[in-house]
Design goal:
heterodimer, A: alpha/beta, Rossmann fold, six-stranded mixed beta sheet, three-stranded antiparallel beta sheet, globular, B: mainly alpha, MetI-like fold, 2 domains, 23 helices, ABC_transporter-like_ATP-bd (chain A), nucleotide-binding (chain A), ATP hydrolysis activity (chain A), ABC_transporter_ATP-bind (chain A), ATP binding (chain A)
Chain lengths: 258, 528
């Protein structure tokens, strides 16, 4: 089967983006107003205190929530149009693997949902890439947390999306596993130059994986820090980590994590 | 593989042992009460089964067939109803209300009417089996279709797919464990429905055999039939459990817990919209009622519409006399049903609590409690009445026994689901069994307890009216049987209305109580 052409990584632009939730008659401002541009092919880390609205921002970009105000364009299209064409993939903190499907079926499900032809070769290739070659027939319940995230990443990549939205994908795994996943997995999409938005709680992760780090204020999410990432520049990482921590600590009152 | 598919405790020995103890108790009880002619012990039952084996086998086959057809129809109806509720969330409240009202129809009255409609044959048996089945499956499906983690649905939506894809790829499979649980509860209910249907004048089947044995005071045969019915129901229960495990569906993470401020609680939430809902529901019930009579072109001789019932109870010159006759019987029945209902619930939950303080005992007895839940107690009603007298005690006992086993099984099952880390936490503080019970196990039990308390409302009325019909000759059961034979169909339909409304109201009352209690003591158990 001919390899389907991967979507070109798009530029993501948010203009006057706002999101307000109505909880039992109470209005809660979750996001914005925000004006933001995510350059094509770059990885941006979004850091901020818990519940600051950065996950909501991600869900808005994915079209999972409708903005209360403002617009988002991905390339030249709306989030809804992009999802319909399977131009993006979303990684969830809990991996969101369906427990009744094997790893292979879970990865293949993305192709089904994207209305793409089944491609056993590509599915197996990705499962091997994330290091689960011997677990293709295993169900999620029998996998470790790290292995589940690997499977979820394989599912994200199988449709070759131009835009990846990662909502704390490694948030639920232990520190050692996290370090290993950080070392192995991001190269899979970063080599292809996928536009990536990564929500994370880990300052170190933000500094080492991204081309750019955005620090958010407590709700409603506003930007309080905008740094160049240190993905290609290990020497700059300690200073960057320091800077992010102080941006977080000074603005949110949260103790910086080293 | 064995540990993964083992239904309960991986070690079956304690269960086997507990079963032996129970059978020994059964034998002892039978021997001790031999002069009362109520209980037949396991030996006598085995003897009767061996003697009448081929007759029992043939009758079982007939009843099983009616039950299976009704079971199938009931479950298809449940799937359709749940589909409507899922596709049109605004209608869910109304659909649930209608489903409840029809589930609360008293079999003792619907049975004879169905017999007139269908004539000879197995129509009534199948219909009652379907009516006994569909509601539990519908409830289970509703919980299952909604208990899907949000991220699974987000996954589908992040590829731009809609509700149909959600249903096909996620909700259908995610609700499978709940559906299986519904089938498991429904299978014994269908069997009981088919048997009650056979009571109304079928020619063959286990129900017919049962009536004959009871009238002849053949104690051994009555218990042999009840044992056969229980064994078949339990077999169906295990079969569906096995089927579920084959399909990769473990037990559902939440057992029949109801939703918090969902639309189905409208009456408690806002009295204004609750009133509108109630009016809509009454209109819908009347619509279905009239629609069925007109649609099926039923003879006005026995098919009475709302206007006939209204005339009979309110506008007719003789209405006062009619009401007096009806409500005398009604209070008689209610005064036996409610004590039996409460005693059954209390004993079931109480024994579960006692057992759970001995964890090994609890895990050993759970499979047995589940098996006993399937005993069609109703079919032994006349024997109880015979032993305990035609007074209140006999009927109350039957109602209590009818409710006891499902409650025991549900409560044990609920407490078994107390989260392991919570129990570990209590252990680290060397908490007493009492603290453990009060703070961890009772809250874990509460949703299961209330679910079975709700479902027990129609069963309690069924048990009471059946006992009255077949044995005591008092109350609504007797009145309905009498009116069916004297063709006083106005009274019969009025009785159906009064009983269905009563059952629905008590059900709603238990539901409101459930919301209050769970909200205070176990809010995490409520499905949002």
């Amino acid at each position: 089967m001919a390899e389907r052409e991967a979507s070109m990584p798009p530029k993501v632009v948010c203009k006057g983006l706002e999101k307000t939730f109505h909880l039992g008659g109470r209005a809660v401002d979750a996001v914005g107003p925000l004006d933001l541009t995510f350059e094509a092919g770059r990885t941006t880390a979004l850091v901020g205190p818990s519940g600051c609205g950065k996950s909501t921002l991600l869900r808005l970009v994915a079209g999972l929530e409708k903005p209360s105000g403002g617009v988002i364009s991905i390339g030249d299209e709306t989030p809804e149009a992009v999802t319909k064409a399977a131009g993006l993939a979303f990684a969830f903190q809990d991996a969101a693997l369906l427990p009744w499907l094997t790893v292979r079926q879970n990865v293949a499900l993305a192709l089904k949902l994207a209305r793409r032809p089944a491609d056993r070769e590509r599915v197996d290739h990705l499962i091997a890439l994330v290091g689960l070659r011997h677990f293709a027939e295993t169900r999620p319940a029998e996998l470790s947390g790290g292995m589940r995230q690997r499977a979820a990443i394989a599912r994200c990549l199988v449709t070759q999306p131009g835009l990846l939205l990662l909502d704390e994908p490694f948030g639920a795994v232990d520190e050692l596993t996290r370090t290993r996943l950080n070392a192995e997995l991001p190269t899979l999409w970063q080599e292809r130059g996928t536009t990536t938005l990564l929500v994370t709680h880990s300052i170190a992760e933000a500094a080492t994986l991204s081309d750019r780090v955005l620090v958010f204020s407590p709700r409603p999410a506003r930007i309080t820090g905008d740094f160049d990432g240190a993905r290609h520049n290990p020497a700059a990482r300690p200073a960057l980590i320091e800077a992010i921590a102080s941006a977080l600590g000074a603005k949110s009152g949260v103790e910086p994590v080293s | 593989m064995t540990t993964r598919t083992a239904p309960f405790s991986p070690n079956a020995l304690p269960t086997l042992f507990a079963a032996c103890v129970l059978i020994a108790l059964w034998q002892a009880l039978a021997s001790a009460t031999a002069d009362m002619f109520v209980f037949a012990g396991p030996l006598a039952v085995l003897g009767a089964i061996a003697e009448e084996g081929s007759l029992l086998l043939r009758s079982s086959g007939i009843t099983l067939q009616s039950a299976a057809i009704g079971f199938f129809i009931g479950n298809v109806a449940a799937i359709l109803l749940a589909g409507i509720a899922l596709a049109l969330p605004r209608l869910e409240q109304l659909v649930s209300g209608l489903a409840l009202v029809f589930f609360c129809l008293p079999f003792v009255a619907t049975g004879p009417i169905l017999r007139v409609i269908f004539g000879v044959g197995d129509g009534p048996q199948i219909t009652l089996a379907a009516l006994a089945t569909y509601y539990t499956t519908y409830l289970c499906l509703l919980v299952g279709l909604r208990a899907t983690p949000g991220s699974w649905l987000d996954l589908v939506r992040s590829y731009g797919r809609g509700r149909l894809s959600e249903l096909i790829h996620v909700r259908a499979m995610a609700s499978l464990p709940y559906f299986i649980a519904g089938l498991q509860i429904g299978a014994p209910a269908a069997f009981l429905g088919a048997m009650v249907g056979e009571f109304t004048g079928a020619e063959r089947g286990l129900g017919v055999l049962s009536i004959r044995a009871m009238r002849g005071l053949d104690v051994e045969m009555t218990w042999a039939i009840a044992t056969t019915a229980a064994a078949l129901s339990a077999a169906a229960f295990w079969l569906f459990g096995w089927l579920g495990r084959c399909l990769g569906a473990g037990p559902p993470p939440l057992l029949l817990a109801s939703r918090q401020d969902g639309p189905s609680v409208g009456m408690t939430a806002r009295t204004g919209s609750g009133l509108i809902y109630l009016i809509l529901l009454i209109l819908a019930v009347l619509g279905v009622w009239i629609g069925l009579i007109k649609g099926l072109n039923l003879s006005p001789f026995f098919a009475k519409g709302p206007q006939d019932v209204w005339a009979f109870l309110v506008s007719d010159p003789a209405a006062a006399t009619n009401r007096a006759a009806l409500f005398t019987a009604f209070w008689q029945t209610l005064s036996l049903t409610i004590p039996g209902y409460l005693v059954g619930l209390a004993l079931g939950a109480g024994l579960a609590v006692l057992l759970v303080t001995q964890p090994r005992l609890a895990s050993a007895t759970l499979p047995i409690a589940i098996a006993l839940r399937s005993i069609p107690i109703v079919t032994t009603a006349p024997l109880f009445v015979l032993a305990l007298g035609r007074g209140a005690v006999g009927t109350i006992t039957i109602v209590a026994v009818m409710i006891f086993f499902p409650t025991l099984a549900a409560c044990l099952e609920g407490m078994r689901r107390t989260p392991r880390p919570v129990l570990d936490l209590f252990s680290t503080y060397a908490a007493s069994p009492w603290q453990r019970l009060a703070h961890a196990q009772l809250p874990a039990m509460a949703p299961a307890f209330f679910a079975s308390a709700r479902m027990a409302v129609p069963s309690a009325l069924l048990a009471a009216t059946t006992a009255e019909w077949l044995a005591t000759g008092t109350g609504m059961g007797s009145l309905m049987a009498l009116t069916a034979s004297t063709s006083n169909y106005n009274l019969l339909w009025s009785a159906i209305v009064v009983l269905a409304v009563t059952a629905s109201l008590i059900y709603a009352l238990v539901h409101i109580l459930e919301q209050r209690v769970l909200h205070t003591f176990a809010s995490e158990q409520l499905v949002q």
